[in-house]
Structure formats: structure tokens, C-alpha cells
Amino acid sequence: MHDPDTGFLADLVLAGGTVVTGTTRFQADVATKDGLVALVGAPGTMPAARETVDVTGQFLLPGAIDVHVHFREPGYTHKEDWRTGSAAAAMGGTTTVFEMPNTHPPTRSLAELRAKQAAAAKSHVDYGLYGLLAEDNLDELPGLIAGGVNAFKCFMGNTFGNLPSPSTGAMLEAFEIIAPSGLRISLHAETASIMAWRQARLVAAGRNDPLAHVAARPAIVAVEAVSRAAVLAEWTGARIHVLHISSAAELRPLAESKARGVEITGETCPCYLLLDTGDYARLGSVIRVNPPVRDAADAAAIRAALMSGVIDMIATDHAPHTPEEKRKDVIWEADCGFPGVETQMPLMLNEVAQGRMSLEHYVRISAENPAQAFGLWPAKGRIEAGAEADIAVVDMERRETIRAERLHSRGKITPFEGVEVTGVPVHTLVRGRFVQRDRRLVAETSGWGRQVTAIQRMPPARVRNADRTLAACLQAPAREEA
Ligand code: NCD
Ligand code: ZN
Questions:
Q1: Ligand 2: distance of its center to the CA of 268 in Å?
Q2: pLDDT at 451 over 90
Q3: Contact 128/98 with Cβ under 8 angstroms?
Q4: Candidates 3.40.50.150, 1.10.1740.10, 1.10.3720.10, 2.30.40.10; CATH matching 10-57
Q5: pLDDT tens figures, 377-396
Q6: Tens of pLDDT along 254-303?
Q7: Is 0.90 surpassed by the pTM of this model?
Q8: Which of 336, 409, 413, 414 to mutate to test the pocket of ligand 1 (most atoms within 8 A of CB)?
Q9: Does 289 sit in the ligand 1 pocket, CB within 6 Å?
Q10: Which one of 8, 36, 255, 479 has the fewest CB atoms closer than 10 angstroms to its CB?
Q11: Nearest C-alpha to atom 11 of ligand 1 is from which residue?
Q12: How do strand 49-54 and strand 10-15 relate by DSSP bridges?
């Protein structure tokens, strides 16, 4: 029924829940219309609606925004594709993902971006797409920017896909090219040359055990890479983001760069908070991930940084592989990474349930901060009138056990197998539509997801040293002599 006075008919009212923001929570009903939040108001004050869902006792969180997933399509669809990966996101309360370019082929050019967009058209959830920043595609960067890429990814160290790492010279030129766009450059911040050197020495010495992987990638690789990238960002004005923070040591260059005004943000992932080197004996090659899970002291420092704001957000580095690719006797042969987009919210809500984090803080690190860092704010990351209705309805009493056979990802093998959590997203809405309902995927929402380019607004760039870029120098070769 339309409202008799105004004629307004909401699409959906979520009634009886508690809305959570980054700073507070309050009892409120939420009405949606045409994909947006239309009203947030006192219980019982909502307009007429096509459908009303009782969410009494449950919490309404802005859907998680995960800026680091690998959905593997095109090229590695035996591990994952856009339908299965985005289904996992929907089941995990994640309403927007940013997907990485280390597919086959990688997302290096406008044509490859168009192919990625075609694959992503199956998505259940909204998405940003990363373009690759490599040594051999600098000429493609302007086309990727004009073509609607949402961020860039630079592999400073080798990882799955074996994309070569750009030299510092090529990185500087790429930062110069990208800086004016304001788009953020996300870094796999581990220095390739240190790791290659050490791995060769460890292999030669016959080390094949899981902890040899940690020995090949000591925290200095992250300290060096974060510091170097921050120097380039400060020089050019490019915005950067440090992916999968794994060590206490790299927090120093991150915090110092922030204090200097460098536009730098950082993420960590559940495995770096919840696992440590004590887990390698139990998990073997399943735990192999780049960068590696480190000591308990690292996990404690990362947790403190996530609470203090030095680390801005939680992401997952969702990196599915098959059991055969993960289970290897020789550690160097095991593929790196594991799925995470479906388990992030339950694992973190369990931290809330155990009293180690507030629900408000979780909203900051899972939704508000990523929305702001990647230009989706104010359209996403909040439940307020005018925002897109991306909502995770959470039951903080519900218990579940993480089991491979329950995961929607194609590559199901996870180090969190058998972990019991308290706190689960029981419904997920993307722009007002249920993509998950009562712990079941709404299969027909494949294709509902759309790219965030239309709503993305990066703050204007503060480009520095524009007169000294390589492009400027190439345009004015005779300036010195004149
Ligand atoms: C990721 C993957 O498999 O694509 N693997 C990983 O160990 N993290 C790549 C990456 O993010 O480094
Ligand atoms: Zn990485």
C-alpha cells in the first residue's frame, strides 16, 4: 500500500534491528527504495513497503568492502570464477570487492580490462577492477584510467602468477603517470630481489619445510618495499595502499609516512591477526601465503595497529587454489594463498563476540575506511538516507563452524577449517536486493553486481614535482641549455 498522504511506497523495510556506524549504534528501522536507503528512523515510523522483514535482535552493518580479492577469471577458473567468488562474498556479508589483475592474461591493457568487465558481469556483488602496473605496460596506463579502471596493483615481489616486478625506475614513471588521476596504487610490498636471493640459498641448502617460506621472506622485504614505495608516493603525490600487512616492522615506515602527509593507507587480513608461526606444524603447506604468516609478536602488533588506526582496514586477499595445488611436501611447490572473502566477517565478528573489538570499530575497518580510501564514500560504506542500500544483517548470537564443504568458493581449502565462530551475516543486501537470505545464496542475483566506476569519486590529486616527471623532461629536452 502507498502511503495515503505522500504516495510513497518503499521497496523494503528492515524492522526492529540495530543500525551500527563507525562511532555509534541505535535502534532503527531502515527503508529502501530503488537501491538506495530511503529512510532510517525510529521503530514503527516507516512508510508503507512492498515487503517488511523482521530483523529484531539483529545488527545492520554497512556491507563489507574488500579491496583485495582474486577471482581468477579469466585464466584460472578451475580455482574460482566471478560467479563463485562473488557468491562467496555475498555469503560473507561483503557487498563490494576490488578484484586483482593477476589473472591470465593479466589486466594490463584496455582490451584486457574489457575482458575482465565481461567476466565480472556475472557478479552477485558490486566491484572495482584493478589494472596492473608493470614495467612493460606503462603506455597502457592512460588507456586503463580513461577506460574506467578503479585502482592499480603493483607487484613489488613475486607471488602467484609470477608477474615480473617493475624496477624502481619504472615504478617512478608509473607513479608520475597515475598520480594526476587520484586513483590509488595498491602494493604487494615485498622486495623481489631479496626474496629470490634467499630462496635460492635455502633451496640449495635443501630446505623444503613450511617454515623455509618464512625464512625466504623476512620482514625486511616488507620494510624495504613499503619505505621505497612511500618515498616514490611522497615525491609524485601518488596515492598508495599497502596490501596484506604481515609484520610489526613494516608498521614503522607506514606510520612515519602517514605522519609526513603521504597519502598512504594499509590493510591487514584475518590470517595475520589470528594465525602465527606456531600454526605451521599443524597446517603445513596449506598456510603458505605471500607475505607469510609470522610470529605471535607480529600478530599482536598488527592487532594494536588495526585498533589505533595505523592500519586502516581489513581485507582478505581471497586467493583460492585447489587442494592438490595447496598440499605439497616441498613447500616451494605449494600455491600461495587461500580463500577469505566468505570467512572474513564471521572471523572478525567472532573477535567482537570475544570482546576484542567493538562492532563500531569493525564497521570502520570493514566498510567506512575502505569506502573513503577508494572513493566510494558517501555512496557506500554507511547506512544513511541517500546511500546505496548495501547492508549485512548480522546475528551476533549465531554459531557456525567453518567447513570447506560449506564454502561457496571453488577453491575451498582454508587454514580456518573447523574454526567455530559466533557472529554471522544472515542476510546480505546489495543496492536493496537480497543476494544472500537466511544463509542461502540467492542464485538468480548473479549479474546484479555492477562496477563502481559511476559512483567512484577520488579526492583531487595533489601532484608534486610535476615539472620533473619523465614526460615533462622528454617534452623539454633543451631546457637546461636554453
Ligand atoms: C595471491 C594469489 O594467489 O593470487 N597469493 C597470495 O599468496 N597472497 C597473490 C597475492 O596477493 O600476493
Ligand atoms: Zn599480494
A1: 11
A2: yes
A3: yes
A4: 2.30.40.10
A5: 999 999 999 999 999 999 99
A6: 999 999 999 999 999 999 999 999 999 999 999 999 999 999 999 999 99
A7: yes
A8: 336
A9: yes
A10: 479
A11: 317
A12: parallel
Q: Is the pLDDT of residue 482 over 50?
A: no
Extents of the domains making up the chain: 10-57, 63-381+398-417+447-454
- Tell me: pLDDT of 191 over 70: yes
Å from CA of 476 to ligand 1 middle: 41
Measured on CA atoms in the order 357, 32, 128, 76, is the torsion positive or negative?
positive
Cell numbers at 455, concatenated: 559512483
Architecture of domain 63-381+398-417+447-454: Alpha-Beta Barrel (3.20)
Number of the ligand closest to the Cα of 159:
1
Q: Is 102 in the pocket of ligand 1 (CB under 6 A)?
A: yes
Residue 247: CB within 6 Å of ligand 1?
Answer: no
The answer on pLDDT for 77 being more than 90 is: yes
User: Which amino acid, one-letter code, is at 193?
Assistant: S
Q: Which pLDDT tens digit goes with each residue over 42-72?
A: 999 999 999 999 999 999 999 999 999 999 9
Structure confidence at residue 112 as a pLDDT band (50, 70, 90): very high
Ligand 2 centre distance from Cα of residue 291 (Å): 7
The set of residues, in sequence order, having a beta carbon less than 8 Å from that of 477 and lying 6+ positions away, is: none
Our answer on whether the CB atom of 319 is closer than 6 Å to any ligand 1 atom is: yes
Lookup: cell for 73: 577469471
Q: With pLDDT > 90 as the criterion, what percentage of the chain qualifies?
A: 97
- Mean per-residue pLDDT, 205-234: 98
- Mean of the per-residue pLDDT values of the chain: 97
